[in-house]
């Protein structure tokens, strides 16, 4: 391996990438557009807060219920207000629902009576309305468990065992998919276009007339693609962590995340070299890489969990490397666990090796012609 | 520069290259001596690039032999590449990078590091007269500046053989003169130069010897002076009217001392051979008399040396840029 030559090619390709607005745009725009769509989608199904009206201002039980409701995740920073204010905001559609704790609520609880809560839900959108409807039993269960009512009158106890130790936000869940798409897209575009550019500008002759081995040239292009992918994905991830969309991982999990991103980048760069050598035109490589990234994004469960995909698509997704990248990054970054990540990394390493084993000979043949 | 034992920078013997049933190069033989500027001329598709690719080791000959400083460019590719500097026609620079970065990349490919790399880069920037634009991106350069930088890049690793493909194509006159100076300086430094060009004036000014390729075959190889002499010692160019060009050609071709007569529209090119200056002085009035005798009116006339364009035309039947 000619390490110095490899380094020179990586440096040159990275410098060219950084100074090529068109290539940067092809790398970043598809992911940015997708991110925007996801944020708009999240805004559409979430949005307005819930109003809480506590008419039993002196009661202990009412205060506890108010506190639980106010801090409930699905109420989007619930606001406590008077009934008049709440009715007005409800009519103006600035609140998604109004929960009224009636006067005498605490006293009725204390005397084993059954107070009535009023719950108004804005039902424009079935998804968000049902989310709000499901929220109230959840709040009341928490209230009953809180001890505010004395002994829990219900004879049924519910114990929840979740798949993941932590809940993940909708935007965070999809943001990881955007990062994976960005990494893969950057790998394909940078390695692919770095190869194509050499043919289009004739600079391939300069490389071929230098003492560099063909394998070093190809690995240099893959190396530049991997570095560009890690930089692009890393910036997106750091921005997501800084914005609070994705929780900050510990050192161990961050290292796992880096390994997974790098392996994904190797897969992308291998595909890029293959496309670049086979297509040899910027427009064709750019167009195909964007389409490919989008298909792989959806097939890997980018916009929804794979479990919600039709069975035949689930079968297809098990052959898509993104699936494993996505699973591993969600596991490490969203759910704070490394369970199964080593296996995902292994699958990605095999996929990267396959991409290189196919891509390198195709480019070698291109160079020799 | 290390002393080389080999007499020839390039040696080509019975070189052939076929693409399927198409013979791109057929039985090519020529040599380029050390310190010689050799021009390879030929119309588009004549086999120049195919020949250069085989000399550079970029493609295998179908048959025949190529040696660069006695080495096989395919089997001893790494050694040959270190001896060869290439200035491709399309300049092949990285336009988004600065001039300095382009040269630095080339230096790194050839194993230069640290101070040695900086010194070579600075020297080549000076040679290309681009020190003040070292930090500018190449895409902001004119065609002439790019060509100069491309030459600087080719010379950075101090090659013994420099191959320049159409080095002045599309550059202004000022840059062309600078490039010609570089090429002549390479010769002074003992480097061998292989040049392809469509500008016969350029070949005439620079080349020690010229090879003319047509349809993959070397149809002539000699010094510019000797090649021009093949066309005749002098050329009489006439611009006439009121006369049939066929009549003029038939009449003049019978006269002793006239090698050939070419006519187009109202122009007549008469090549004169095997005559001294004094004899030409006697022949010219006779030729003019023949033209006027046929009723022709001479509007313009010039007696001059033959040009390489005329040589090329007579050998290949077409202009070099056709």
Residues in β-strands, percent of chain A: under 5%
Point out poorly predicted stretches of chain A: none
| Main sheet characteristics of chain B | 6 strands, mixed
How are helices and strands ordered from N to C of chain B?
Answer: EEEHEHEHHHEHEHEEHEHEEHEH
How many domains is the backbone of chain B divided into?
A: 2
* pLDDT averaged residue by residue of chain A: 86
Quaternary form: heterodimer
> What general form of chain A does the structure show?
elongated
Number of distinct helices of chain A? 14
Q: Main beta sheet of chain A, described?
A: 4 strands, mixed
Query: What would you report as the Rg of chain A, rounded to the nearest angstrom?
Result: 27 Å
CATH superfamily of the largest domain in chain B: P-loop containing nucleotide triphosphate hydrolases
Secondary-structure-based class of chain A equals: mainly alpha
Could you tell me which chain pair has the largest interface and how many residues each side has? A-B, 22 and 27 residues
Brief summary of the model shown:
With 369 residues, chain A is mainly alpha-helical.
Keywords:
heterodimer; A: 369 residues; mainly alpha; abc type-2 transporter like fold; 2 domains; 67% helix; elongated; B: 322 residues; alpha/beta; Rossmann fold; Alpha-Beta Plaits; six-stranded mixed beta sheet; four-stranded antiparallel beta sheet; 37% helix; disordered N terminus
Write up this protein.
- The complex is a heterodimer of chains A (369) and B (322).
- Chain A is mainly α.
- Chain A has helices at residues 3-18, 21-45, 60-70, 83-91, 105-110, 126-145, 170-201, 204-208, 214-242, 251-279, 282-299, 311-317, 321-334, 341-368; strands at 50-54, 79-80, 97-101, 118-121.
- Chain B has 322 residues and is α/β, with parallel strands linked by helices.
- In chain B, 37% of the residues lie in helices and 28% in strands.
- Chain B has helices at 48-56, 77-83, 99-109, 114-127, 143-155, 173-188, 200-206, 224-230, 245-253, 277-293, 308-316; strands at 8-19, 22-33, 37-41, 63-68, 84-87, 161-165, 192-196, 209-214, 217-222, 234-241, 258-264, 267-272, 297-304.
- Chain B has a 6-stranded mixed beta sheet, sandwiched between helices.
- In chain B, helix 3 crosses helix 4 and helix 5 (143-155) packs parallel to helix 6.
- Residues 1-5 of chain B have low confidence and may be disordered.
- Chains A and B meet through helix 1 and helix 8 of A and helix 2 and helix 3 of B.
